[in-house]
Design goal:
alpha/beta, binds adenosine-5'-diphosphate, binds magnesium ion
């Protein structure tokens, strides 16, 4: 009778259930499992930091709709993933974390890296369990994957003690498990779709908001058709960019504050009324705004603001039914209405303000100029990964997405340090699903620092990521070189260097020398253009462009603070 070990049972179950990518860091007790993954035909990507591995695994989940696996060792290895698990859970992205744990006969007597892993993971998960035997691993794998994908997507954790992974069992005695298969599609109640259109038709100042739920739902064609037919203005959330193309004439992204504040009816498609959308409340929204909300998650309905129409359903069939209903009623919103006139005026005023920043091309460079010329130089179907404070916020308004799921950023949890892990996942996605597409990873210098060593992972896996570091020598802002030298001369940097300051003009691009390659140091626009061109020509590994900008460059003045102040 042939025997099989726990490692092989686990790797085979993952493969059978359609998992393709495992990101992680191996060590005791999961080294053999990492090898088993490759033997069974899974892609294994060894990373340099567990957090980054966890970010990569969740990004591949968002891009493909199937969870990536994050594989880590016991104790500290797993604890390092919690930032990533929380990030995935809060962004509603599918992720499966697998942790090795101390052998069971060492539990309670101070085992190596012994830690109550199942309980500790539970707050960040939809499902957290340790299979009680090798034979039950396939069942737990199916259940965990199902939990990550069904309903509102999220995180699952499976715990495997070292002794279980290495245990040999009789192959024939392991029960076969059925496959998760496709996620069942939840259709909307037809009466609610009619009611939604009743409300929409009455609106004087309607607005569609597309969120990353619409991107994840693959509802881009339906959403774009709805905008095309109705001529309604739309506003994307940060990662909802590209559901309807950013270049679409009905985008009112440049009139965001006015659109939100003045809309009387908001059609909310896969976005939450959380801090990103200012809770749907005054002063950023009209106190009488009527919300038509569509979300896969029933518990999300009526959150923060009571919706006029609340629909629990998948966005793809819902938006299609909305489209059919508006077509039946021939509802087309007047392009000459006061609402469109106001929005167009605001967009134009904003365009002029931005253009005046773009026009300043003398060094030291500002954000707007850098992003404008970067946008001109990159292919317009690129996947853009972006993080950092100003880098992400200003970049979002200038770097365009015309396809869904083509923007990955700090997201709902506002997590910094996600960029390189996300970029690695996006580059693997391109390699396997969209070979000509490029990944442009635009990082603030501080954000880059969280997981900068993942550049080695990019090199090892031959991932042609273009890394652009927008270097202002600090968090939010830096200081000029002479000021920095003066501060550093002081006795104790711990007393004199402000918390937001990093070393001025750090030569990040020289990290490419680690691989006997050359990075690009950029201080002018012609240098930037040349560096992007050279970097796009590199096909077999990362390239790095270190753009030195004015340490006090900032956003143009805003009507509101970025976080709505609490009045309670
Ligand atoms: P954003 O940050 O873009 O506003 P959020 O993450 O806040 O997006 O909201 C996305 C919403 O989309 C979540 O409430 C989630 O439940 C929902 N969602 C995810 N997938 C689907 C789907 N297939 N159909 C409908 N809603 C979905
Ligand atoms: Mg910075």
């Amino acid at each position: 009778m042939s025997t099989i070990d726990g490692n092989t049972v686990l790797a085979r179950s993952l493969k059978e259930q359609g998992i393709e990518y495992v990101f992680g860091i191996v060590g005791f007790p999961v080294i053999e499992f990492g090898m088993a993954c490759q033997t069974e035909g899974l892609n294994y990507i060894g990373m340099r930091n567990e957090q980054a591995a966890c970010y990569a695994a969740q990004a591949i989940g968002y891009l493909t709709g199937k969870p990536g696996v994050c594989l880590v060792v016991s104790g500290p290895g797993l604890l390092h993933t919690y930032g990533g698990m929380a990030n995935a859970q809060i962004n509603c992205w599918p992720l499966l974390v697998i942790g090795g744990s101390a052998p069971q006969d060492h539990e309670g007597i101070g085992g190596f890296q012994e830690c109550n892993q199942v309980e500790l993971s539970r707050p960040y998960c939809k499902y957290s369990a340790r299979p009680p035997s090798v034979g039950l691993i396939p069942m737990h794998v199916e259940k965990a994957i199902r939990y990550t994908m069904y309903g509102r997507p999220g995180v699952a954790y499976i715990d495997l003690p070292g002794n279980m992974l290495s245990l040999q069992v009789e192959e024939e005695k392991i029960p076969r498990q059925y496959l998760v298969g496709d996620v069942p599609i939840i259709h909307p109640q037809p009466s609610l779709i009619k009611k939604a259109v009743d409300v929409l038709i009455q609106a004087k100042r309607p607005l569609i908001i597309t969120g990353k739920g619409a991107a994840y739902a693959n509802a881009n064609i339906e959403c774009t058709s709805l905008v095309n037919y109705t001529n309604l203005p739309f506003l994307p959330s940060p990662m909802g960019k590209g559901v309807v193309p950013d270049v679409h004439k009905n985008s009112v992204a440049s009139a965001r504050s006015t659109a939100l504040q003045k809309a009387d009816v908001v059609l909310l498609l896969g976005a939450r009324l959380n801090w990103i959308l200012h809770f749907g409340r005054p002063p950023r929204f009209d106190p009488n705004v009527k919300v038509i909300q569509i979300d896969i998650c029933a518990e999300e309905l009526n959150n923060s603001v009571k919706s006029e129409v609340a629909i629990q359903a998948d966005l793809k069939p819902s938006v299609l039914m909305l489209l059919e209903e508006v077509q039946k009623r021939r509802f087309v919103f007047d392009g000459k209405s006061d609402w469109w006139t106001l929005l167009n005026e605001k967009c134009e005023a904003n365009r002029k303000a931005v253009q005046s920043m773009i026009d300043i091309i003398e060094p030291p460079l500002n954000y707007y100029t850098v992003f404008h010329h970067l946008q001109e130089a990159i292919p317009d179907n690129s996947i853009i990964v972006s993080e950092g404070a100003n880098t992400m916020d200003i970049g979002r308004s200038i770097l365009l997405n015309n396809l869904p799921r083509h923007r990955l950023d700090a997201g709902t949890f506002g997590t910094m340090g996600v960029g390189l892990g996300f970029a690695i996942a996006a580059a693997l996605y391109c390699r396997d699903y969209a070979p000509k597409k490029r990944v442009i990873c635009v990082e603030g210098d501080s954000a880059f620092g969280f997981s900068g060593m993942e550049i080695e992972t990019m090199f090892r896996h031959k991932l042609p990521i273009v890394l652009v570091i927008v270097n202002n020598s600090g968090i939010y802002n830096g200081v000029p070189k002479d000021v920095y030298s003066e501060i550093r001369e002081m006795d104790k940097p711990s007393r004199s260097v402000p918390p937001t300051i990093l070393t001025t003009v750090t030569r990040y691009e020289t990290m490419m020398n680690m691989f006997e390659k050359k990075g690009h140091l950029v201080t002018t626009i012609p240098e930037l253009k040349q560096a992007v061109k050279d970097s796009l020509a590199v096909q077999d590994g990362p390239s790095m462009i270190n753009v030195i900008i004015n340490p006090s460059a900032d956003r143009k003045p805003q009507a509101f603070n970025w976080l709505t102040e609490s009045k309670l």
